[in-house]
Amino acid sequence: MSGEPVLPSGVPLAIEIDGILEGRIHTSEQILVLVRALDQCGIGSFQCDLNGGRFSLLPRETRIPGLAFSEAMQARFLDSLTNLIAMAVQGSVESTLRCRLVYAGQVAETLFVVRGSVLEPITRIRVRLPDEFAANPAGGSKPLPFGLLRRELFILSPVLGILGLLTAWRVGLIDQLLAARAEQIEVDTGPFGKVLEMRFVRSWGSYEVEILRGVDFPKSPSAQEPRPADERSVAVRAACEAAASGGYGFLLMRNSSGKAVIAVRFEMRPLLVDANAVVKQTLPGRMDAAKIALSLTAEEPAKK
Q1: Digits of tens for pLDDT over the chain (304 positions)?
Q2: What gap in Å lies between CA 190 and CA 260, rounded to an integer?
Q3: Which positions ≥6 away from 148 have C-beta within 8 Å?
Q4: Which helix (DSSP H) or strand (DSSP E) does residue 291 occupy?
Q5: Strands, DSSP E only, in 73-137?
Q6: What is the model's pTM?
Q7: Backbone angles phi, psi at 190, to 5 degrees
Q8: By CB neighbour count within 10 A (0-12 exposed, 13-18 middle, 19+ buried), where does 124 fall?
Q9: In which region does residue 149 sit, left (phi positive, over 0), alpha (psi from -120 to 50) or beta (all else)?
Q10: Distances (CA, A) of 127 to 8, 64, 102, 104
Q11: How far apart are CA 99 and CA 128, in angstroms?
Q12: Cα–Cα distance, 83 to 298 (Å, whole number)
């Protein structure tokens, strides 16, 4: 699938694909469109999990027939994968995605390496071993998902259980189940002070945050004229100006070290036009959540 070496001609008999591709995203809508494009490339369908600005992409089936994966479809798959990586936050994508294309006498093994925002498929061609990838003989044990026999699945059950827990941790499920209780989390309106009020509750592993007008919210754009510089800091004056003009701020979740682990932008325009308006945001639950704060600027969330 890479420029060299040259793959055998024709379509493969079978495809084995596994591994995971993950990184950070700007918008969830765009990546879902690109995942649907991958599903149309003849190499099976993909599952995309989104959590806190991160995505995890993995194949739904690890072994599928290869008759739909023509050379044109192989090129289309690489283009779709390249587009997806280019769409992600630069330098955030990590990959263990790999596949095998099984031909009559050869096997092409490809590892999809990501360096920065560039996809580098690394392929090797080798001879297919005599009984490699052979179908189950007639009368043999009925295959289970992923090509395992019942005896093998029984032996691997403890390993699969551990892998399941690791996967749940990677996609944030355990974080959500064990998320810190709302009453344990500090609330900080930052430079907005009493211009904005914030309240939140924990709901099914997430935090439902509400932002509304505070007692010092400007009644009109002219009502936020700066006082003498020694009375208010630059950040506080900027926060008042942002509120009075219907601008935006950032909702940050910080850990016990004070580092932002989640950053979400919110708009104040609804608060400007309606005194009773409430701006709502949902933050995923985190075990390490210590503070939810309002800020004028975004901070790059710390990696888990």
Answers
A1: 544 566 778 899 999 999 999 998 887 777 888 889 999 999 999 998 888 888 899 999 889 998 899 989 999 999 999 988 888 888 889 999 999 999 988 999 999 998 888 888 988 898 988 776 655 333 333 444 444 444 444 445 555 455 554 554 444 444 444 444 545 788 899 999 999 999 877 655 677 889 999 998 987 655 444 444 445 578 888 888 888 888 889 988 888 888 888 888 898 988 988 889 999 888 777 777 788 999 988 775 555 4
A2: 14
A3: 156
A4: strand 291-295
A5: 94-95, 98-102, 106-115, 118-127
A6: 0.44
A7: 55, -135
A8: exposed
A9: beta
A10: 11, 20, 10, 9
A11: 15
A12: 26
Here the tokens at position 199 are 């309240």
**Contact indicator for 60, 47 with CB cutoff of 8 Å:** yes
Do the Cβ atoms of 264 and 283 come closer than 8 Å? yes
N-to-C CA span, the chain: 33
* Residue found by looking up tokens 């004056």 in the block: 237
* Helix intervals (H) in 67-118: 71-87
The token duo for 118 is: 């560039």
- C-alpha pair distances (Å), 60 with each of 133, 142, 146, 184, 242: 19, 20, 10, 38, 45
Residue among 30, 31, 64 nearest 45 (CA): 64
Q: At 61, give phi and psi (nearest 5°).
A: -120, 140
